[in-house]
Amino acid sequence: MPEQPTTPPTSPCTPAETTPPAGGAAPAPKAHEYAHERDWPGYYRAVAGKGARETLLKALELFERDAPSDLPRFAIDLGCGSGRDTFELLRRGWRVLAVDASELGLSLLKKEVPSEHADRLETMLSGYEDFTPRRATFINASYALPFCEPSRFDEVWARIAAAIPPGGRFAGQFFGERDDWAALPDRAHHTRPQVERLLAEFTIDRLQEVENREAGATGIVKNWHVFHVVAKKRPGGSS
Ligand SMILES: C[S@@+](CC[C@H](N)C(=O)[O-])C[C@H]1O[C@@H](n2cnc3c(N)ncnc32)[C@H](O)[C@@H]1O
Questions:
Q1: Which domains does the chain have, with CATH numbers?
Q2: What is the pTM of this model?
């Protein structure tokens, strides 16, 4: 029985994220239809102005509730896109390294960052596959890691997990094997036991497995199978 979300689960493309049709024109594709094609410029247009992801907000709430610690408020936003989560981290006083393989995503992010936060933001143009994170109290990867080259996923994840110190957190999504995109050769999908193994060095704050269906603009329905994760590195884990 899947755990019930405490807040409505977000997909990259909930109905709220549909681009409104202009003047009776055919509805514009939804964000997930762009993501299906890896059309990141279209995706950034479709999610423009959207707020931070629930998993990011949950992790920040938990950090705020934790006992005072010496861990620096430094986060990596991996697959940051045009910056919806990075902006929230900066707003809450974190220093952020925002990483994405899309130059357009990073340039949209830099254009929108409030000038009073700019000195706490660093950006890096990189694929996950070539990126070695430095030690970070928080690594956030919203709807990002399933787009990793599948044959490189395990090493990418090992570097992420190793970079988070005990008391630090990971937040983000993994996609399950019953998601329609699992059939695509360029996506990394995981079963629940595999997700639990990835998180072996973590205490689970949230692991919500959500399966639902969403119609795209053309009526084609996508089956989603998503794990929403917030997890805290245990003392004694690597790093
Ligand atoms: C679905 S978007 C998510 C963006 C943002 N985190 C959000 O929640 O809206 C996926 C992002 O991952 C980036 N991406 C895809 N494959 C990547 C890779 N192999 N390495 C780095 N970034 C990648 C894309 O450029 C895109 O910005």
A1: 51-64+71-233 (3.40.50.150)
A2: 0.92
